[in-house]
Design brief:
The protein is α+β, with helices and mostly antiparallel strands and 673 residues long. The protein contains 17 helices and 9 strands. It is flat. The chain starts with a helix and ends with a helix.
Length: 673
């Protein structure tokens, strides 16, 4: 509640009394925010601060509590370590399933060894942490707690023959009878290949299936569809119906694929994927091992392990989080309604306030966040997941939308904390810092533009000169991000000198001089200069004042006083915040009755006069500051004129006087002689 209604009534009455008009013309002129009383403005800011603090606290509980557990990061690390990075020989007593780590794969042969060794060893064996000898088990449980859901699948992407141009000079070469380009959707191969006979376990691996989802490697992204194979999960049987260990059946399938040349020179990427579920944490882990085989002939292993809480509401705590999420939605709706009422009441335009536009952007971002969360839930529900059925489920899409929603929540959290600057700007101690940043905005934008142009130049030069030698400068995008990182750390002189004996040291020195010694110090100088100007303009530098809190405290005190009066029966109850009684008399927050209405009007007029005086004081203060700056310049000019003109003239006169005195003394001496 505020005093805007009372002040508007007072302003209209005063206008009618002075000009003799009805005040109808004042209604046609829309009021702006500066015409509101200072108390009304500060009281609204105080209410917004209180509501924002409540919203921020609830949002922190909703977003921090579900993930504030070190076991979640340990879950991700353990799955990455077990399948992709751990030395399998450390805990594997069975030499049949030994092999290299996935991150150490440097050839297709190593990849087959990893598939048939560490991967099968980790996916099908019994618990290893007890130190017991390894035995074959089909329980589908990894390290005691993690359950394999769905199936383990291996799929690849291929390209067609004759998909690149052979230069004329090499067309007659016998060694070059075919040219196969790097992977692209336009040259992707979708035809069946390999041995054309059917085996129930792995015959489909040589046929293209469009239902496989897309995936991403280190070098590029690969669209949907692939040549894929699903490894058995549990309850495996032979062709004759006899029970057999799934690890043996999977090993035999992989062996047959290797011997029939499933991976050849036209393969550009092979991806192994499995999904696990941890019941104590209620989280899924998607493990993807991508081996890229680009046209350059290199081998690039890429590890991707992501965890997600796809079953969001399962426990009592989860449903408590759901209740808080509903409270957040209600707070957003309440804030929207408050802004609509405020702008309609005072006939203001939304774009007249930058912070209110910022609030609208926050509302839109929150709506996007809710939409992404809902989309992740619906994507997982569309899978019709049944843990008792061992079949392939596309958890990758559900995990992807879960990650996008969490990323949007992170962006929203940043802007919610940034919104506190709106209220800190009213705090006298913080206003100095924010005013310094605003004053330095223009020079900093210019400085950042100059720095960005220089970064583009260094990235371009680095790509051309060292792109084939230095990994950080291998592409233009990587070079641009690396040059920005070089501002802080990671630029090694020996690496550049090895890439170019002359150009390498020159590039290193020029980058350090321009970007580190000059541009960074320019930024510091601009901030210090702006801070010095703000501090020079402040007369009382360190008084503590926070008008929104003071106005809100005053409104609460008046409300409490009126409440006590109503309890004592001294005054009749009336709406809080300034209302008009049935007789048309306006009431303010001062607590006066209708019998002293003239005093109310006089108080409102005094408040308006104080507002005008405060504005006039600010204008006069600015003009006094400009006049003082002008006088300082004039005094400085006078000093310069004195130093350049008067001082040499005085010095010349002094020399002449000394010469005349010496001549007179010399004449007197000669006369005496």
């Amino acid at each position: 509640a505020n005093m805007a209604d009372a002040s508007s009534v007072a302003g209209k009455s005063a206008t009618t009394g002075k000009s003799g008009k009805t005040g109808a013309s004042s209604k046609s002129k829309p009021r702006t925010k500066v015409q509101l009383t200072e108390h009304a403005r500060n009281a609204r800011l105080g209410r917004e601060l209180l509501g924002h603090c409540v919203f921020l606290c609830i949002f922190c509980i909703v977003t921090i509590v579900p993930v504030d557990d070190p076991n979640i990061e340990n879950f991700t690390y353990s799955m990455r370590s077990l399948f992709l990075q751990e030395d399998n020989l450390l805990f594997n007593n069975n030499a049949t399933y030994a092999g290299p780590r996935f991150v150490d794969v440097v050839s297709v042969s190593d990849y087959w060894k990893w598939l048939k060794g560490p991967l099968l060893h980790a996916a099908y064996m019994t618990d290893w942490y007890r130190g017991d000898p390894w035995t074959v088990g089909d329980q589908g449980v990894i390290t005691g707690h993690n359950i394999i859901v769905g199936t383990i699948n291996v799929r690849q992407k291929r390209v067609r023959r004759a998909t690149c141009v052979i230069p004329a000079q090499f067309k007659g070469a016998q060694e070059l009878n075919d040219c196969i380009a790097d992977y692209d959707a336009s040259v992707e191969d979708k035809e069946a290949y390999g041995p054309f006979y059917t085996e129930p376990e792995w015959a489909a691996a040589f046929s293209f299936t469009s239902s496989w989802p897309q995936f991403t490697g280190e070098l590029r992204a690969y669209n949907g569809g692939a040549y894929g194979l699903e490894l058995p999960a549990s309850a495996c049987k032979t062709a004759g119906g006899a029970d057999v260990a799934c690890v043996q059946k999977a090993s035999g399938m992989l062996y047959d694929l290797e011997m029939t040349g499933w991976i050849d020179h036209r393969t550009r990427a092979v991806m192994t994927e499995l999904t696990l579920y941890n019941p104590p944490l209620n989280r899924f882990a998607l493990v993807q091992a991508v081996l890229e085989l680009p046209a350059s002939g290199s081998v690039s292993p890429y590890v991707n392990v992501r965890t997600a809480k796809l079953i969001r509401y399962a426990t009592t705590g989860d449903y408590a989080i759901l209740g808080l999420e509903i409270a957040l939605l209600l707070l957003v709706l309440f804030d929207i309604m408050e802004k609509v009422v405020f702008y309609r009441q005072y006939q203001l335009r939304l774009w007249s306030s930058g912070w209110d536009m910022f609030d609208v952007a926050l509302h839109i971002l929150y709506t996007i966040y809710l939409s992404l969360r809902l989309n992740a839930v619906l994507t997982f529900a569309a899978l019709n997941f049944d843990p008792t059925l061992r079949m392939y489920y596309n958890f990758a899409d559900a995990v992807y939308w879960h990650d996008v929603g969490e990323g949007t929540a992170a962006v929203l959290a940043w802007f919610l904390w940034l919104r506190l600057m709106k209220f800190l700007n009213e705090l006298s101690w913080a206003r100095i810092i924010l005013q310094s940043l605003r004053k330095a905005t223009g020079p900093l934008i210019g400085l950042f533009l100059v720095g960005f142009v220089l970064l583009l130049a260094f990235a371009h030069v680095g790509l051309l000169a060292f792109g084939t030698h230095i990994h950080d400068l291998r592409t233009f995008g990587a070079a641009l991000s690396s040059t920005f990182r070089f501002l802080f750390a990671g630029m090694r002189y020996e690496e550049f000198r090895a890439a170019g004996l002359v150009l390498g040291p020159v590039y290193y020195i020029m980058f350090k001089v321009w970007m580190v010694l000059i541009m960074v110090r320019f930024a510091v100088a601009v901030l210090l200069d702006a801070y010095r100007e703000v501090m020079d303009a402040q007369r009382n530098r360190w008084p503590l004042s926070f008008p929104p809190f003071e106005a809100l405290a005053k409104d609460v005190a008046v409300w409490w006083e009126e409440r006590q009066r109503r309890r004592a029966g001294k005054t009749s109850a009336r709406p809080f915040g300034g209302a008009v009684a049935g007789s048309g008399v306006a009431h303010t927050l001062s607590g006066v009755s209708a019998s002293v209405h003239s005093q109310d009007l006089k108080g409102a007029e005094t408040q308006m006069a104080q507002l005008d005086a405060r504005e006039m004081y600010e204008v006069l203060q600015n003009r006094v500051g400009d006049l003082q700056h002008h006088m300082d310049q004039r005094i400085s000019n006078i000093e310069k004129i004195f130093v350049t003109t008067v001082a040499p003239l005085v010095e010349t006169l002094d020399i002449l006087v000394r010469q005349q005195t010496e001549n007179a003394a010399l004449t007197a001496v000669r006369a005496n002689q």
